[in-house]
Design brief:
- With 436 residues, the chain is mainly alpha-helical.
- It has three domains: 157 residues, no CATH class; 105 residues, Orthogonal Bundle (Cytochrome Bc1 Complex, Chain D, domain 2); 109 residues, Cytochrome c-like domain (Cytochrome Bc1 Complex, Chain D, domain 2).
- Helix content is 40%, strand content 4%.
- A two-stranded antiparallel ribbon has the order 1-2.
- The longest helix has 24 residues.
- The protein is globular.
- The mean pLDDT is 94.
- The chain binds heme C (HEC) (3 copies).
């Protein structure tokens, strides 16, 4: 055989493999199990009550409301909330059963294709701000119940503003490339070497609850890096390492502590605030105890992120001294001189894994703008922390953060004043007020 034909053959096989990959990646045949006649605008009947109730639980677990409802709006699922990405804002759609502005004209199959494969009604690619790369793992049965629930939702006429990203992100077809690189087109497969409880936890964390959307670090294109649940920057916030690592992760937490955090919004160490407070309030507090336990079992089994505790900074370091002064004057009323805080109200700063992460974003943002713990049925009077942006300088905030990261057994890198200045800008907060 001549060399050219061999090469030609190789090229042909390569092209065939590439075409096969493209086809497999865009394959939505798993959604063909769904009905393609009845429209979402047709309300469910009395006989469907059980499916609708199950579907409501699925919608809560998937936290669809979080993105698909505009802030302060009473119109659940009517869209209009802009999700900020490094590429620009992406508006979440109206997914109420309104025929003109929502998904009233969609069939069950159209709905499955959007949720599990990121395809719009006409087959166009959705942006991965819609977490279909997680929802691809949702089972047929849960999809069916979810759709039945969506049919029971009040239709709202509201046209969501059009998403307009800059070139080349405005080209929806370009998402085909993104999908090829980062979308794993396969449903949930149980790991038979693990317990049913572990698999239930995996199904929820990897699929419906899309915990990795926030907790897994991203590459420049917004795809998951190969560091599942090892912690990720969300601009003002840091979604911490939630692997079994016992320094920055939750390896030192018992299953019960994880369950409490997700159900009450706090345990004796941490208090959920910011984006996690929303996730707890909207979603995890409503999960059954069995499901929360399953999530805890799964998280506790996740491979250690590998972070290792350094030596803490010495107490006579000049930043540490400044930090100790700032702390004793401003923080001890709630967090105590031993850093232990007030159980279930004010975060324990001592022995708190998330506060020792390399990324100190949440600490800086909280000191600058204050905060509020998650409000839940189990803990309705959550604690609040005042803002210090007006009171403390960038140096003082950095010193306080450095101090709490290196006291009471904690150890982590020092926080620089420039980082605090940067956060002030992002958060649009004023400078320290001049003393009179
Ligand atoms: C993290 C935010 C986020 C969550 C959570 C989320 N979505 Fe979305 N969804 C979006 C965004 C953003 C879009 C629009 C994407 C685009 O314009 O390409 C979208 C689009 C859709 C669409 C397509 C609508 C259309 O008109 O094209 C459907 C259907 C949908 N989502 C259903 C759901 C359901 C059901 C859930 C819960 C299981 C859910 N979404 C959870 C962000 C989210
Ligand atoms: C919208 C983004 C987002 C989603 C989705 C999300 N988290 Fe979080 N999570 C965060 C942020 C941010 C924090 C830090 C909160 C703070 O500092 O108070 C956090 C904190 C946590 C913590 C506390 C860790 C510690 O050391 O204090 C746990 C545990 C956790 N999340 C688990 C989960 C699980 C399990 C899921 C899925 C069910 C999930 N998160 C979904 C953003 C998110
Ligand atoms: C009036 C009580 C109060 C005071 C004073 C206070 N805090 Fe807090 N702090 C809280 C509460 C409540 C929370 C939990 C809610 C939250 O995270 O917003 C918290 C949370 C925190 C967190 C955790 C942030 C995260 O990632 O979730 C840090 C760090 C922190 N405080 C540092 C400080 C520092 C430093 C000071 C002094 C400059 C201070 N606090 C003063 C009540 C207080």
């Amino acid at each position: 055989m001549k060399k050219t034909t061999i090469l030609g053959g190789v090229a042909f096989i390569a092209a065939a493999v590439a075409a096969g990959m493209l086809w497999q990646n865009g394959d939505t045949s798993a959604d063909d199990v769904a009905d393609n006649q009845i429209l979402t605008s047709q309300p469910p009947g009395a006989a469907d009550a059980a499916a609708v109730a199950r579907g409501k639980y699925i919608a809560i677990a998937g936290d669809c409301v979080a993105c698909h409802t505009a802030p302060e709006s009473k119109n659940a699922f009517a869209g209009g909330y802009s999700i900020s990405t490094p590429f620009g804002g992406i508006f979440a759609s109206n997914i109420t059963p309104d025929k003109e502005t929502g998904i009233g004209n969609w069939t069950e199959r159209d709905f499955y294709r959007a949720v599990r494969h990121g395809k719009g009604k006409e087959g166009e690619n959705l942006y991965p701000a819609m977490p279909y790369n997680a929802y691809v793992k949702v089972s047929d049965r849960d999809m069916h119940d979810l759709w039945m629930y969506m049919r029971s939702v009040k239709p709202v006429r509201y046209a969501v503003p059009e998403t307009n990203l800059g070139f080349p992100y405005n080209i929806r077809l370009a998402m085909m490339g993104w999908n090829l690189l980062f979308f794993k087109n396969s449903g949930f497969k149980a790991d038979l070497s693990r317990s049913a409880e572990w698999n239930r936890g995996a199904y929820l964390v990897e699929g419906l609850e899309h915990c990795g959307a926030c907790h897994t670090p991203k590459n420049l294109l917004g795809g998951d890096r190969d560091a599942w649940l090892q912690g990720s920057n969300l601009s003002e916030w840091h979604a911490p390492d939630i692997t079994a690592n016992s320094y920055t992760g939750i390896g030192g937490w018992s299953e019960q502590q994880i369950v409490d955090y997700l159900k009450l919004g706090s345990n004796h160490v941490a208090v959920a605030s910011g984006p996690m407070a929303e996730a707890v309030t909207n979603s995890t507090q409503h999960l059954s105890d069995g499901d929360l336990r399953a999530i805890a079992v799964y998280l506790k089994s996740q491979p250690d992120s590998g972070t290792r505790k350094p030596q803490p900074l010495a107490a006579d370091d000049s930043n540490m001294k400044m930090g100790a002064n700032v702390y004793s004057a401003n923080c001890t009323a709630c967090h105590n001189s031993d850093g232990k805080g007030i159980p279930n109200l004010a975060t324990s700063l001592a022995g708190n894994p998330a506060l020792q992460a390399e990324d100190a974003s949440s600490i800086i943002s909280t000191i600058l703008q204050g905060g509020r713990g998650a409000v839940t049925q189990g803990n309705p009077t959550s604690g609040a922390m005042p803002a210090f942006a007006w009171k403390l300088s960038d140096e003082q905030v950095a010193a306080a953060a450095t101090y709490l990261r290196n006291s009471w057994g904690n150890a982590a890198s020092a926080v620089k004043p420039e980082e605090v200045a940067g956060k002030r800008k992002v958060l649009n907060l004023p400078e320290q007020m001049p003393a009179h």
